[in-house]
């Protein structure tokens, strides 16, 4: 795996062993984490206590936003039998977080949907569909009450990932 040039401070395991407080000071001055390398590979990341607690608070706030969204009434159910399926999808696909297209497909298949990774370019096709329409559409293997069930995974490509096959799930609709 080729490593991108980091826009954050770096240190080595040797420097951390010699003076961990200097690395914490480096993180404090830069206002960001310090990547710690061991033999030219990232071994970990060091943060100050304040930086760590700020990240935890931001994570809690994001989770609260997600819970607030999931507690709003869902008007897109075909019938009450789909609420259980919707809950399973909500539990297996965390909204507002990055997921690879391959993992998304595997989780949808495990919930009874037809795979989208057919052929050589399956993942690429999924990402292209997301870019063009803002969603990836899945069909349930079995009909519910003699109706085809479709799940629309609304989202966008994750630009922060160095891999182009990651996306962020915004909403899940079942029709």
UniProtKB/TrEMBL annotation:
InterPro entries cross-referenced by the UniProt entry: YefM-like_sf (IPR036165)
Family affiliation: Belongs to the phD/YefM antitoxin family.
Protein name according to UniProt: Prevent-host-death protein
Organism expressing this protein natively: Tetragenococcus halophilus (strain DSM 20338 / JCM 20259 / NCIMB 9735 / NBRC 12172)
Organism ancestry: Bacteria, Bacillati, Bacillota, Bacilli, Lactobacillales
């Amino acid at each position: 795996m080729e490593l991108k040039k980091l826009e954050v401070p770096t240190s080595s395991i040797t420097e951390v062993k010699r003076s961990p407080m200097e690395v914490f000071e480096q993180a404090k001055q830069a206002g960001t984490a310090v990547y710690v390398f061991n033999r030219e590979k990232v071994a970990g990341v060091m943060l100050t206590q304040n930086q760590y607690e700020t990240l935890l608070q931001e994570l809690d706030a994001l989770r609260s936003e997600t819970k607030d969204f999931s507690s709003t009434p869902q008007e897109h159910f075909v019938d009450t039998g789909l609420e259980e399926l919707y809950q399973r999808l909500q539990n297996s696909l965390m909204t507002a977080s990055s997921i690879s297209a391959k993992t998304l497909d595997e989780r949808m298949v495990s919930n009874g949907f037809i795979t989208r990774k057919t052929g050589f370019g399956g993942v690429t096709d999924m990402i292209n569909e997301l870019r063009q329409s803002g969603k990836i559409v899945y069909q349930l293997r079995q009909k519910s009450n003699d109706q085809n069930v479709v799940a629309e995974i609304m989202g966008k490509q994750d630009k922060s990932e160095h891999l182009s096959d990651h996306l962020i799930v915004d909403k899940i609709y079942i029709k």
